[in-house]
UniProtKB/TrEMBL annotation:
Transmembrane segments: none annotated. The keyword Oxidoreductase applies. This is Tryptophan 2,3-dioxygenase. The lineage of its organism: Bacteria, Pseudomonadati, Bacteroidota, Flavobacteriia, Flavobacteriales. The keyword Oxidoreductase applies. InterPro entries: Trp/Indoleamine_2_3_dOase-like (IPR037217), Trp_2_3_dOase (IPR004981). GO terms for molecular function: heme binding; L-tryptophan 2,3-dioxygenase activity; metal ion binding. Keywords: Dioxygenase, Oxidoreductase. GO terms for biological process: L-tryptophan catabolic process to acetyl-CoA; L-tryptophan catabolic process to kynurenine. It comes from Kordia periserrulae.
Length: 321
């Protein structure tokens, strides 16, 4: 068989590549010859993926609940993938920065709109029954979402807002972590006792959280933004993208989570406790969390009124029902 000049040129390039790395091209060609054709289902491990939904009860909607959260965690992984690219990039151009932030916003957009599945896609009575088999597990225990926060902004911006002015970047990461805002969501406000949900979560993930916090102590996405040249920092498209990310992650996402919680956990004149014992009414509202990844790009008034309009709408709607 006659080898075309194009194929011969490629073979020559491959030979140079493997010779330079001390490898034998012939061995790799033998491997290619014996290798099976790749199929779609093998490439994405489809059979394994579809086997990961294992309900604990016989209620059909529990499988929806499981798959929804698994899909959510995959989107979180995509967000972290883009965050790491921003943190690791050496060029730090407005175009690269903005493009990656747009990708993250698209993932959040999909997540926020997908909450319609949680709000209207399951029967409330089924949920109230099978949820009792999930104790003390809770969506509160999503470690990837905490990682998104750690990659996005310095830990002093994640300290609970009631004591945030008492901390700065000069404080140790251990002290900042001990006062991080989400721990308040699984702590009894009267006794100060941590719920089992929080104790399990800390035991499982604190070492990983602290490793990430140390790795990005001076190189979070917010640090990367602050280090940009002034003309790049003032780029309108970049600022708009960062503001959209702040709102998506710290207002729209928790707000949709609240909508789901009200749908399933609200009863007339009272509310039901979450499976993990989290004080979700106090923990979820954006105006109570007041987490802002990029405080420099917001005015003082915007920071003071953070999430208030949206949360007032939720509470007013609840009172009318």
């Amino acid at each position: 068989m006659k080898i075309s000049p194009e194929i011969a040129a490629r073979i020559e390039k491959l030979e140079r590549k493997y010779t330079n790395s001390g490898q034998d091209l012939g061995s790799y060609l033998d491997g290619l010859l014996h290798q099976r054709y790749l199929t779609y289902w093998e490439y994405i491990h489809l059979d394994t993926l579809l086997s990961l939904q294992i309900p604990r009860t016989f209620f059909p909607d529990e499988e929806i609940f499981i798959m929804y959260h698994q899909i959510t965690e995959l989107y979180f992984k995509l967000i972290i993938h883009e965050q790491k690219q921003i943190i690791d990039d050496k060029g730090q151009t407005a175009e690269f920065f903005t493009q990656r932030i747009h990708r993250i916003n698209n993932y959040f957009k999909a997540l926020i709109s997908s909450f319609e599945i949680m709000i209207n896609g399951m029967e409330r009575e089924q949920f109230l029954n099978y949820r009792m088999s999930l104790l003390p597990a809770s969506g509160f225990q999503s470690a990837q979402y905490r990682m998104i926060e750690l990659y996005a902004t310095p830990m002093e911006n994640l300290v609970h807002h009631t004591v945030r002015d008492q901390f700065s970047s000069k404080d140790s990461l251990d002290d900042l972590y001990e006062n991080i805002y989400w721990k308040k969501g699984a702590t009894d406000s009267k006794t100060g006792e941590k719920t089992l949900t929080l104790k399990q979560f800390e035991y499982r993930y604190t070492p990983r959280f602290m490793r990430i916090a140390n790795e990005v102590q001076h190189s979070t996405i917010y640090h990367r933004y602050l280090a940009l040249p002034e003309e790049v920092k003032k780029n309108k498209n970049l600022i708009d993208a960062l503001k959209k990310l702040d709102l998506n992650a710290n207002v729209n996402w928790p707000l949709m989570h609240m909508g789901s919680a009200y749908r399933y956990l609200r009863r007339e004149k009272t509310t039901i406790e979450a499976t993990g014992g989290t004080n979700w009414r106090e923990y979820l509202p954006p105006s109570f969390q007041k987490v802002i990844f990029f405080p420099e790009i917001w005015s003082d008034n915007e920071k003071n009124e953070w999430g208030k309009e949206w949360v007032d709408h939720i509470f007013n709607t609840e009172r009318k029902q």
